[in-house]
């Protein structure tokens, strides 16, 4: 629906610097294609949503058996009964109001949240169980302290007055008195951040002695801050290379983290959020059961990017798992190359229709990797074919040539040893810093600052 100019002006004048407390909104999403119904609306805060920008995200997915909460927190037919879950997240933008999003996109039953808080973690650190005394703020949902998240849905808390600085950590605690009556639950296994589980209600406790530590996120999918209208986000569709395989647990040194830090260094880009919508094992084309993990990138585009508040840019850095899981035969590799290109075209077309600019990143080398490299080099040929299309087709609004950034000049099919995590597929923190350093900041502003025209 196109609003009339006079109506937009009226809404802008009334709301540009005012964020009001609004009732919690339940968002229905399908678990098969990852599509949020009522995609652009957020209920009664429809007009205000231009001021709400995601500052942190994690791609929801169905939890695999090996990533479930450890005993005794997972039973035969329920999870986290009478348990407190404390998790930390790393924000990119700051603000004076925050709200937290919880997801039950893949839950087998409704998710009853008894109580939840947001606080500052002890020492400002990631992956800690302690809180800064006096920093806890109760989360409410339409003024209520508890809420039940329907199957396939997500909820957003009421706004909380809280000074949140850019590039800092928040702690989110939730108590589930009844637990979730299913062993199908929603999580983000590749958190690279430690969370804590403890029996009983300890949401407001200053620390959780004796808690069980797990390196996964459960149920939380986004944090939003109230920001000026010019604030916006860049979302990243990706796989384990963006999710941070090879980075430091609790170090927040994935390449999107490093990019967020660079953006904060310059006045013209300080109001750009970086939103990591990647997951290990994710594919552009296929879902679990076809050698991939999580809903495919095409299917989750609307849920993870287009329907979220404040999106202005999208980076697509994904495809290596599609190539690596396709058979090492000429026919299979030719097919996956064609299918990837078609999928990229679909992502770009749909994003452009929503006013989102799309930047394509070339696929990085995997020569020497025991799973993806093949003796005939057929998968390498596919990677090179797809990268040529990314570089030369003109479909993307800009190209981030990550392949050239991290490849070994003396052996272009392999990662530079200084950037290799050791498996010849994933990067180490130095390699991730190199990716972030190569991204031109001018892509995220229209300003004519001299440093932008000369960057990266």
What does this structure look like?
By secondary structure, the protein is of the alpha+beta class. It has two domains: 21-222, no CATH class; 230-443, SGNH hydrolase (Rossmann fold, 3-Layer(aba) Sandwich), CATH 3.40.50.1110. Helices cover 21% and strands 25% of the residues. It has helices at 5-15, 240-243, 255-264, 301-306, 320-325, 330-353, 378-392, 402-406, 429-437, 450-453, and strands at 25-28, 52-57, 61-62, 83-90, 95-103, 111-113, 115-119, 137-138, 147-149, 153-156, 160-164, 169-176, 186-188, 195-199, 212-214, 217-218, 220-226, 232-238, 272-278, 311-317, 357-361, 398-400, 407-408, 411-415. Strands 1, 2, 5, 10, 11 and 17 form a six-stranded antiparallel sheet that branches. A six-stranded antiparallel sheet has the order 8-7-12-4-14-15, with no helix packed on it. A hairpin with a 2-residue loop joins strand 23 and strand 24 (411-415). Helix 6 runs parallel beside helix 7. The chain starts with a helix and ends with a helix.
């Amino acid at each position: 629906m196109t609003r009339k100019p006079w109506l937009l002006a009226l809404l802008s004048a009334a709301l540009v610097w005012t964020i009001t407390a609004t009732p919690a909104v339940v968002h229905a999403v399908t678990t098969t294609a990852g599509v949020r119904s009522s995609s652009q609306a957020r209920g009664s805060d429809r007009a205000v949503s231009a001021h709400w920008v995601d500052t942190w995200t994690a791609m929801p997915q169905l939890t695999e058996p090996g990533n479930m909460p450890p005993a005794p927190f997972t039973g035969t037919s329920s999870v986290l009964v009478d348990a407190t879950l404390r998790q930390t997240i790393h924000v990119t933008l700051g603000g004076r109001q925050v709200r937290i999003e919880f997801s039950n996109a893949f839950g087998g039953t409704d998710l009853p949240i008894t109580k939840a808080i947001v606080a500052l973690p002890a020492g400002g650190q990631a992956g800690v169980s302690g809180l800064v005394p006096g920093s806890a703020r109760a989360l409410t949902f339409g003024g209520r302290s508890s809420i039940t998240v329907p199957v396939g849905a997500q909820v957003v808390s009421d706004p909380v007055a809280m000074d949140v600085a850019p590039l800092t950590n928040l702690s989110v605690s939730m108590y589930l008195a009844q637990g979730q009556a299913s062993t199908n639950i929603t999580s983000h296994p590749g958190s690279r951040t430690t969370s804590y589980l403890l029996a009983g209600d300890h949401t407001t406790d200053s620390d959780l002695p004796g808690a069980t530590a797990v390196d996964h996120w459960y149920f939380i999918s986004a944090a939003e801050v109230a920001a000026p209208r010019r604030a916006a986000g860049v979302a990243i569709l990706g796989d384990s290379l963006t999710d941070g395989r090879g980075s430091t647990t609790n170090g927040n040194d994935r390449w999107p983290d490093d990019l967020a830090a660079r953006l904060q260094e310059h006045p013209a880009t300080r109001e750009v959020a970086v939103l990591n919508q990647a997951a290990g094992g994710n594919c552009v084309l296929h879902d679990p059961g076809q050698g991939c993990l999580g809903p495919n990138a095409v299917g989750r585009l609307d849920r993870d990017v287009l329907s979220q508040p404040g999106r202005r840019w999208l980076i697509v850095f994904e495809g290596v798992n599609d190539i690596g899981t396709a058979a090492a035969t000429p026919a299979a590799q030719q097919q996956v190359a064609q299918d990837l290109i078609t999928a990229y075209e679909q992502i770009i077309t749909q994003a452009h229709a929503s006013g989102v600019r799309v930047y394509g990143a070339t696929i990085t080398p995997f020569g020497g990797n025991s799973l993806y490299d093949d003796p005939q080099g057929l998968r390498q040929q596919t990677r090179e074919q797809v990268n040529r299309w990314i570089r030369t087709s003109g479909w993307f609004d800009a190209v981030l040539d990550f392949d050239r950034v991290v490849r070994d000049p003396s052996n272009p099919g392999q990662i530079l040893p200084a950037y290799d995590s050791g498996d010849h597929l994933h990067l180490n923190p130095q390699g991730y810093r190199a990716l972030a350093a190569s991204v031109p900041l001018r892509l995220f502003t229209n300003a004519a600052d001299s440093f932008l025209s000369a960057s990266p």
